[in-house]
Amino acid sequence: MTDPVMPEGKLDLTAASALHDQLQSVADHDVIVNLEKVTMIGALCLQVFIAAARSAKAANRSFQIINAPDTVLAQLKSMGFTPKSLAEGSV
Predict the structure, then answer these.
(1) Which residue spans traverse the membrane (predicted)?
(2) Could you tell me the end-to-end alpha-carbon distance of the chain, in angstroms, rounded to an integer?
(3) Buried b vs exposed e over 53-79: b needs ≥16 C-beta within 10 Å?
């Protein structure tokens, strides 16, 4: 098992490429994403998480989202997601 991926701050357009790279670097393992230091999540980074979750599922690996702050939970909810549905790669 690898260490959790721990993005920080705003996960917006400018963060999407780095987030994708972080998730690609751990794609050969079960993935845990710790959102405790995230202040905002935008649609593009949400899509990065969905793609990573789907890739993990296709490879029979787990993908978990943990410690999302209330503000991030509210943003996910406004886009129709929960940490669980996001981790499942559901749309």
Answers:
(1) none
(2) 27
(3) bebbeeeeeebbbeebeeebeebbeee
Q: Which tokens hold the place of 63?
A: 């993908």
- Residues whose CB falls within 8 Å of the CB of residue 64, separated by 6 or more in sequence, listed in order: 30, 31, 32, 33, 83, 87
Cα separation, 75 vs 58, in Å, equals 27
Chain-centroid distance, C-alpha 62: 12
Query: What is the per-residue pLDDT across 59-76, written as a single tens digit (0 to 9) for each?
Result: 999 999 999 999 999 999
Question: CB–CB of 64/31 below 8 Å?
Answer: yes
Going from N- to C-terminal start, the domains of the chain cover 9-87
Q: Report the run of H or E that residue 14 belongs to, with start and end.
A: none
What is the maximum span of the chain, computed from C-alpha positions, in angstroms?
32
Architecture, CATH, for domain 9-87: 2-Layer Sandwich (3.30)
Does this model's pTM top 0.70? My answer is yes
